[in-house]
Amino acid sequence: MKNSLTTSAHLQTPTPGVSDLASPPIAGLQIRDATAEDMIAVQAIYAPHVLHSSATFEETPPSVQEMQLRRERVLAQGLPYLVALINKEIVGYSYASSYRARIAYRFTLEDSIYLADGHAGKGLGKALLAALLARCDQGPWRQMIAVIAGTNNLQSIGLHRSLGFKHVGTQPSTGFKFNQWIDVVFMQRALGPGDTTLPDLQGS
């Protein structure tokens, strides 16, 4: 549900504290923290996915103002919100968010990645996810969940596998969009030391 990518890769089991984050170089690529002004371009990237894709289960595109509020909520939790630029044009974005609101989930995150039309299959999604993981590996969080709409979304599934996620379950017919039922695939990867140590509960 949170990924606009739609090639499969061999399964890789995540190793706590170890990340294979290398991506092929993309000419002119820059990945940086998103600004409030970037949300105009981010909204323009996201809206077509809402209208024409099952990658998100939203059906009405949010406004630029709503996208700015969502970014602010991400940043308020100390989480990264990133944009990718090629030759100074924003062509994709990624961010981490809380997996669930209940307090016991506080060390678990969910990733979201969306690319502008015409930029899938070039390694951009992997670069964005790798950058997101590198940031989250340095924080207090211990697990990241990918929530992917459709068992046929092989590009997103393959992308996550290539960076250490493993399939942990599928919920059949959980979503309904475009007059069809949509399965939801769950993949998971350890962050930092994962579950090999207990978290620091001071201030958490």
Automatic annotation (TrEMBL):
<dbReference type="InterPro" id="IPR016181">
    <property type="entry name" value="Acyl_CoA_acyltransferase"/>
</dbReference>
<dbReference type="Pfam" id="PF13420">
    <property type="entry name" value="Acetyltransf_4"/>
</dbReference>
<dbReference type="InterPro" id="IPR000182">
    <property type="entry name" value="GNAT_dom"/>
</dbReference>
<protein>
    <submittedName>
        <fullName>Phosphinothricin acetyltransferase</fullName>
    </submittedName>
</protein>
<feature type="domain" description="N-acetyltransferase">
    <location>
        <begin position="29"/>
        <end position="192"/>
    </location>
</feature>
<keyword id="KW-0808">Transferase</keyword>
<dbReference type="GO" id="GO:0016747">
    <property type="term" value="F:acyltransferase activity, transferring groups other than amino-acyl groups"/>
</dbReference>
